[in-house]
């Protein structure tokens, strides 16, 4: 136990020596806001008494807790020393601080050491004297002839030690900053420096021994001549002193009880140990100063045997620890238990690098900096303007009454709520420093996007709390470690943050905590959710809240509706008298800062009197008036005019705004007045605060007024409506924005021709500037495969002036469509030249969701106003382009210029405009369709993430869920995930009719969410077993205990109907299936594999029993009149779909399923909402759509090999969405066109592949024995041969096709012959090889050059033919073991065969002799093609042998992993674990390489991994270095030397044989010297390159 505790303290020792550790109470942490630096100037040594410094007031028990400043973009958060707290109440009655048990032990140890080693301690105290007497702490040559350390007056000695420690700490700080070689000891230095400083402040008796620690730290920062043993010892001893200090406080705080005697004995042993520790420290210090020239240390003691001295320390520690273990064997009550609890807590107390990264990601704003900015912007915090509240009875009641946990400060705009709370933050921060409580606060501002929402509030509060008390970060790390930054920013952020916040407030380590939130009314997003959270946590006894807002009824109603928590409402209007007095004080303070008034007291008082009379208790009114006074240039002669102007000021805030606006209109310069109105108009209609550069862009300002200084002057001219902070323009107050936005006077002044004119100008100015700045790779990333999460904004940011424009120009253009003139061709020209550049920036700014919506909106407006225009055609194509490439835009900005163009239809307008953007290194381009097809969007999801799936009724959102992942919401237009709902084990999901809510069945609970807010609700009732909802989410069916099926109303839970299920399910509950029609009129139920019963629920009678095997193959129309299903007869599937009229109870239509055969299975059916169309998802990877009325096939949608498990129609029937295991596709059903045929190997999938010697031709052979030859240089099909010969799967092998040496002919094998084909003529050559038909042939392969062919029989007889002559060359017997793979060496001299019994052999081709046989370390086949070692399915074998037969390679494609075994003669076997990487032909052209889908692997360069007990060496995928072109592990990228270069859309990605987790489809990849030949299902994809990719 001791070693574990010791290890925990060693790594995470406490920064607090709080009394809470001794008395069991929970001591919270000091102030995190005010950072008061330690004095840096010289400190005089007192002669007659103690020095009265602020440090004296610091609690002697509470150690420093670092505060974290807002992290800079490129640096770690800065950890600073904490502020010095105010005076506490820790001194005893005589004014002397009490000693802790640890302090007493240190003193005893020091006193005894002084007796035992007087010369050593005397020398040490002389060193302290020398340091105290030195004016410069670096002048260590000063020699003290006498010991000046006060031996009697401990108070005086305390002040001496304070100065001594401060000098040492300052020196350490300077030297550790200057030297880089001490990085390994810096954490110890910083931690120990804080501990030493804190202890000495409070306890004079502990000063002398702890000063040793302070000085010894210099040894770590100045290792000039000491040995490594000494340096190691100093570090160890320093750390152990901290540990034993904590241990002493916990063990010896209470000397009572049955173990008191044992504790006294243990205390004596600890004193002995302390003496050893102190002796080592002091000897180290003496040795250090001897080297620095203090001659009186010269002959003190031999200080060279550091190993021996350190060994004495370790022996003393071992002895004490043994005594402690003995002590622990006795029941010592709560003391050691508390030690255990404390040690566990301390594991997370000290911040690690991971903690700091977590805090950086959590950081969205530093509320402390926000407070400073607000105070600065408003002219500073005037103390007398807010301190009145401290004596107010409401505040006092809240402060001292534990039951009053909420103080709500409410008032109208401008009443000083924010500055009042700034003052309260300061006041409570001071109180926190005295009492050890915690404080966290946040200032909402509606005009600043980063601090005007509920997410920012929680992030700010949590950030401050974890910064004060690092142990609390464990609640954040619990979720952060597995999710990362998305925890705080992702669609599930609110749920995650609320969970973290609740856990923090419930943490037992957290004592009284004050939470302050200002400006609830300025929380423009998520206010209701925030109020709900406050209501939820208000009953917590240890948290007190202060909130401020306007007098909004909804806020009042929410806060007052908290039955378990009482609060106090403090209305500023009700307290108008004290507020007015505060305003008077504020006026006096502001007036004192006006230069003109400093020379004229009477004038100042006159002005103040006028302002007091008109202020009406409104701080904002006063602030605006004084802001204008500061700008006035008034001479003494103009004082009467000044007074007149003040007397004319209106009292009302709105009237004041009117006056300010009138002053702008009355400016002497018409141009200046116009510029001011332009600036104000832009700020009003903009969607967020603008940076100065963005404002200049939107206004179209040129050089003379576009600079920051000129813009600042212009903004000052705009009265007091606006202010500038950190280069960003804000409204001075929310009320000023509201005035300009809603006041009719302001609207007419700013928008003479309406707001649409401003919108239009902003859009067109944006277009003009974007056209001048945007370019390819605007950030100079020079990496086309870089992902958005790996990109950081460069400095300076080239988009600084364009960020707002790039995100919003199209939205402003849509709003101002009435002013858009098509003859103004700037928009068209911009898109023609800069569309891809703009989309790159949209991707960089992660704003595709809004931009795609704007594109769709603009396209609709053009269709309405300018049909058949060139701009409309471009917008339509642009919209299809952005949706088609949604993954690229959301994830890989620079792939817009490569993959997005490469895989866009040939006749796309966007492709024709920007095809030159494709790098010329891509020489052979893959086949793509000519026109856009019906597929609008492909959304890539995690495998199995859309087991349940539904489209919103408005067709704008998708919801997906599965039983293992949380439900996710997707934007249909942009393909971007917008929400993740915090729940798992979802069985079904549905949208409400208005698309505002989502219903789900989760682990038999009923849950629904508000789509906009994501707020979760749960029904108070639960359904029965195996529930299922109607598609509209109105009703739910489930099974009762007695086997009946109940139907309930989803809103109320009322049981509406009971249905008697006559089937006997026994115990197989998973076989029970049900489906409910929308209005709950009909219910389908069955047992899996049996006939389905259709029950008339309302009539309580059977409607019909249908022949189909699964309920999911039954669908109801939305009005419950029709039912569709796949027909079966006597258990056999039929080639037709039956349409049954449920009302008439008869079949009304039969729809043939052709061309889908009866052998292909339908996975799902779904009627369109108008039940005119019926869609069915086919297992083979397509969707059939039929016209129900006509009974005919309307179209076939190719799903690219993945079966559609779910289908969903939009309410208007224009959109059909389909979900497979790995993606979702959205189909446009308004413009159905037959999809173009694509080049393929078909019919059926590829079985064999061959490459010509010059790698210019590739031949494929399908399972239907169709052979095609492909020209790699052009990417086209060169020749097709249909053999028409009989062939079995045993005769078909990966090498059953081969080219001749000259690539003019191709050879294929059949059951009875080998056929030679002339590629140029496209005919069969007559000199074929006839094979014996009476043999049961098992397997056959060609040699690489096609010169030899071999085949093996089931009985193990091998025959080799010379293809050129047709003669047999050799026969041999290989045994009766089952043959799995065969291959010739490249020179055709050897034949290698692998067997299912874990062995392989090598035979000479000429003689037929076996020259090699090996067993072991390969997969062991079973009778069902399984591997007994791997316990998995084996799909594919490959084998290769080198030209000298010294190297054999065996490859296996397992069910979930691929691996290659390399047998080098005389060497250990090597196993390559390829995981998902596939392989085809193992040897490349040169035998020093093998070829995989990931690229070539240099066999001579393999770095073997660790040996295993099976005596082979494994090399993992991460350790393998791929060369040349290949595919990434997930097949989504084409790679070069293992690095991503070109993204592959899903339909072009292969899956290794047997390694497809999602379908039965196969894939084949042939890696060519300069390209790839890919087969996906039947589709052929050829991509060629001129050489390595450009850098």
TrEMBL record:
Biased composition (Basic residues): 7-16
WD repeats: 951-980, 1246-1280
Keyword field contains Metal-binding: no
Repeat as UniProt keyword: yes
Domain of life according to the entry: Eukaryota
Keywords, comma-separated and alphabetical: Repeat, WD repeat
Biased composition, class Low complexity, residue ranges: 17-28
All copies of domain NACHT, residue ranges: 405-550
Region of interest called Disordered, as start-end residue ranges on this chain: 1-103
Protein name: NACHT domain-containing protein
């Amino acid at each position: 136990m001791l070693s574990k505790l010791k290890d925990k303290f060693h790594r995470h020792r406490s920064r607090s020596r709080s009394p809470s550790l001794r008395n069991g109470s929970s001591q919270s942490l000091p102030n995190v806001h005010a950072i008061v630096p330690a004095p840096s100037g010289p400190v005089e040594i007192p002669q007659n008494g103690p020095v009265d410094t602020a440090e004296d007031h610091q609690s002697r028990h509470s150690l420093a807790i670092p505060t974290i400043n807002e992290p800079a973009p490129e640096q770690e958060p800065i950890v600073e020393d904490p502020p010095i707290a105010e005076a506490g109440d820790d001194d005893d009655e005589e004014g002397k601080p009490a000693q802790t048990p640890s302090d007493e032990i240190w003193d005893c140890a020091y006193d005894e050491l002084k007796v035992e080693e007087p010369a050593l301690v005397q020398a040490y105290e002389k060193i302290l004297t020398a340091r105290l007497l030195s004016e410069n702490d670096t002048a260590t040559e000063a020699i003290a002839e006498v010991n000046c350390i006060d031996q009697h007056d401990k108070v005086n000695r305390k002040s001496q030690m304070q100065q001594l420690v401060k000098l040492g700490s300052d020196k350490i700080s300077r030297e550790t900053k200057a030297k880089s070689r001490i990085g390994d000891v810096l954490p110890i230095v910083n931690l120990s420096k804080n501990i030493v400083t804190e202890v000495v402040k409070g306890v004079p008796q502990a000063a002398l021994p702890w000063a040793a620690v302070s000085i010894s730290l210099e040894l770590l920062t100045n290792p000039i001549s000491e040995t490594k043993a000494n340096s190691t010892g100093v570090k160890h001893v320093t750390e152990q002193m901290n540990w034993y200090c904590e241990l002493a406080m916990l063990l010896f705080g209470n000397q009572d009880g049955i173990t008191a005697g044992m504790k006294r004995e243990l205390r004596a042993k600890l004193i002995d140990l302390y003496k050893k520790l102190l002796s080592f420290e002091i000897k180290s210090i003496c040795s250090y100063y001897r080297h620095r020239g203090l001659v009186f240390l010269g002959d003190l003691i031999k200080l060279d045997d550091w190993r021996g001295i350190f060994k004495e320390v370790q022996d003393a520690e071992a002895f004490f620890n043994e005594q402690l273990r003995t002590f622990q064997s006795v029941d010592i009550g709560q003391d050691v238990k508390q030690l255990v609890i404390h040690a566990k807590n301390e594991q997370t107390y000290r911040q690690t690098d991971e903690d700091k990264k977590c805090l950086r990601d959590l950081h969205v704003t530093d509320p402390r900096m926000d407070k400073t900015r607000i105070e600065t912007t408003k002219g500073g915090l005037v103390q007398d303007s807010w301190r009145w509240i401290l004596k107010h009875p409401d505040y006092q009641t809240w402060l001292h009454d534990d039951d009053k946990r909420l103080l709500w400060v409410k008032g109208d705009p401008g009443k000083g709520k924010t500055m009042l709370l700034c003052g309260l933050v300061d006041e409570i921060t001071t109180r926190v420093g005295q009492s050890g409580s915690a404080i966290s606060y946040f200032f909402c501002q509606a005009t600043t996007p980063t601090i005007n929402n509920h997410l920012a509030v929680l992030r700010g509060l949590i950030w401050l709390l974890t910064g004060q008390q690092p142990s609390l970060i464990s609640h954040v790390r619990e979720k952060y470690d597995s999710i990362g930054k998305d925890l705080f920013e992702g669609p599930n952020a609110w749920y995650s943050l609320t969970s973290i916040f609740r856990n923090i407030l419930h943490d037992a380590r957290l004592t009284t905590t004050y939470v302050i939130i200002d400006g609830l009314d300025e929380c423009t997003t998520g206010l209701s959710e925030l109020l709900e959270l406050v209501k939820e946590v208000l009953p917590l006894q240890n948290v007190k809240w202060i909130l401020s807002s306007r007098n909004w009824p909804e806020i009042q109603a929410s806060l007052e509706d908290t039955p378990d928590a009482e609060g106090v409402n403090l209305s500023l209007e009700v307290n108008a008298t004290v507020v007015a007095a505060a305003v008077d004080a504020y006026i006096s303070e502001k007036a004192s800062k006006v230069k003109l008034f400093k020379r004229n007291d009477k004038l100042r008082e006159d002005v103040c009197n006028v302002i007091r009379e008109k202020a009406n208790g409104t701080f904002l009114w006063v602030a605006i008036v004084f802001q204008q006074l500061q700008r006035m240039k008034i001479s003494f002669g103009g004082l009467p005019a000044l007074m007149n102007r003040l007397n004319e000021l209106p009292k009302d805030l709105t009237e004041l705004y009117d006056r300010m606006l009138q002053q702008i209109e009355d400016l002497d310069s018409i141009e200046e007045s116009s510029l001011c109105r332009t600036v104000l108009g832009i700020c009003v209609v903009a969607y967020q605060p603008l940076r100065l550069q963005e404002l200049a862009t939107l206004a179209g300002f040129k050089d003379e007024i576009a600079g920051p200084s000129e813009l600042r002057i212009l903004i000052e001219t705009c009265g007091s409506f606006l202010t500038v902070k950190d280069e960003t323009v804000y409204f001075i107050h929310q009320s000023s924005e509201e005035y300009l936005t809603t006041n009719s006077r302001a609207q007419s002044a700013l928008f003479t021709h309406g707001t649409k004119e401003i919108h239009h100008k902003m859009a067109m100015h944006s277009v003009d500037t974007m056209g001048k700045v945007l370019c390819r790779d605007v950030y100079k990333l020079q990496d086309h495969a870089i992902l958005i999460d790996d990109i950081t904004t460069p400095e300076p940011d080239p988009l600084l002036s364009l960020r707002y424009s790039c995100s919003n120009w199209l939205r402003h253009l849509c709003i101002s469509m009435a002013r858009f003139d098509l003859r103004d061709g700037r928009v068209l020209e911009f898109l023609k030249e800069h569309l891809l550049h703009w989309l790159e920036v949209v991707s960089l700014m992660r704003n595709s969701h809004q931009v795609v919506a704007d594109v769709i909106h603009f396209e609709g407006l053009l269709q309405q106003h300018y049909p058949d225009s060139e701009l409309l055609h471009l917008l339509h194509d642009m919209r299809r382009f952005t949706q088609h490439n949604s993954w690229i835009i959301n994830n890989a900005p620079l792939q817009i210029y490569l993959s997005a163009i490469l895989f866009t239809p040939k006749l796309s307008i966007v492709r024709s405009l920007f095809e030159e953007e494709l790098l010329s290194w891509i020489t052979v381009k893959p086949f793509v369709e000519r026109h856009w097809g019906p597929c609008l969007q492909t959304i890539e999801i995690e495998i199995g993430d859309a087991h349940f799936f539904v489209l919103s009724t408005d067709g704008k959102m998708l919801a997906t869920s599965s039983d293992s992942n949380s439900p996710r919401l997707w934007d249909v237009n942009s393909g971007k995930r917008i929400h993740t709902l915090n729940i798992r084990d979802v069985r079904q999901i549905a949208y409400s009719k208005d698309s505002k809510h989502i219903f789900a069945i989760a682990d038999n609970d009923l849950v629904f969410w508000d789509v906009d807010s994501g707020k979760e609700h749960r029904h108070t009732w639960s359904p029965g077993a195996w529930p299922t909802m109607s598609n509209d989410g109105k009703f739910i069916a489930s099974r009762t205990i007695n086997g009946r099926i109940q139907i309930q109303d989803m809103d109320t839970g009322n049981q509406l109907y009971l249905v008697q299920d006559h089937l006997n399910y026994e115990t197989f509950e998973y076989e029970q299936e049900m489906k409910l029609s929308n209005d709950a009129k009909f219910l389908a139920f069955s047992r899996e594999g049996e006939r389905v019963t259709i029950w008339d629920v309302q009539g309580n009678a059977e409607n019909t029993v249908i022949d189909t095997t699964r309920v999911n193959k039954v669908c109801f129309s939305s009005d419950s009149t029709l039912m569709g299903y796949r027909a079966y007869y006597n258990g056999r599937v039929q080639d037709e779909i039956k349409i049954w009229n449920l009302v008439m109870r008869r079949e009304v239509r039969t729809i043939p399923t052709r061309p889908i055969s009866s052998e292909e299975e339908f996975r799902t059916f779904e009627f369109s909402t108008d039940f005119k169309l019926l869609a069915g998802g086919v297992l083979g990877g397509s969707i059939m759509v039929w016209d129900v009325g006509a009974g005919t096939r309307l179209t076939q949608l190719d799903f690219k090999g993945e079966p559609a498990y779910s289908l969903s129609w939009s309410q208007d029937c224009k959109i059909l969405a389909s979900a497979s295991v790995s993606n979702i596709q959205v189909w446009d059903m308004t413009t159905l066109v037959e999809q173009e045929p694509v080049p393929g190997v078909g019919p059926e999938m590829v079985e064999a592949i061959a490459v010509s010697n010059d790698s210019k031709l590739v031949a494929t052979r399908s399972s239907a024995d169709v052979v095609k030859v492909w020209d790699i240089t052009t990417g086209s099909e060169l020749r097709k041969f249909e053999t028409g010969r009989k062939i079995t799967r045993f005769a078909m092998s990966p090498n059953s096709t081969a080219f001749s040496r000259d690539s003019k002919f191709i050879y294929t094998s059949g059951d009875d012959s080998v056929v030679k084909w002339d590629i140029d003529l496209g005919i069969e050559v007559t000199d074929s090889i006839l094979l014996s038909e009476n043999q049961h042939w098992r397997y056959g392969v060609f040699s690489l050059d096609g010169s030899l062919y071999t085949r093996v029989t089931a009985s193990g007889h091998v025959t080799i033919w010379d293809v050129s002559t047709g003669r047999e060359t050799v026969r041999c017997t290989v045994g009766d073991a089952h043959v799995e793979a065969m291959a010739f060496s490249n020179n055709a001299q050897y034949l290698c065969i692998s067997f299912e019994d874990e062995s392989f052999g090598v035979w000479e081709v000429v003689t037929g002799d076996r020259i090699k046989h090996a067993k072991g370390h390969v997969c062991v086949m079973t009778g069902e093609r399984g591997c007994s070692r791997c316990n998995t399915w084996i799909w594919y074998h490959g084998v290769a042998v080198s030209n000298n037969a010294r190297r054999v390679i065996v490859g296996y494609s397992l069910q979930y992993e691929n691996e290659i075994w390399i047998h080098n003669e005389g060497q250990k076997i090597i196993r390559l674990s390829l995981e998902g990487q596939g392989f085809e032909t193992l040897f490349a052209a040169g035998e020093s390489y093998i070829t995989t889908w990931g690229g070539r692997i240099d066999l001579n360069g393999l770095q073997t991994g660790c040996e295993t007990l099976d005596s082979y060496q494994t090399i993992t995928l991460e350790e393998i270095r791929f060369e040349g072109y290949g595919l990434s592990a997930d097949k989504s990228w084409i790679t070069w030397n293992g690095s991503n270069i070109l993204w592959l859309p899903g339909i072009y990605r292969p899956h290794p044989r047997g390694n497809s987790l999602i379908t039965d489809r196969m894939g084949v990849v042939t890696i060519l010297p300069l390209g790839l030949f890919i087969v996906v299902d039947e589709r052929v994809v050829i991509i060629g390159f001129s050489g390595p990719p450009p850098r």
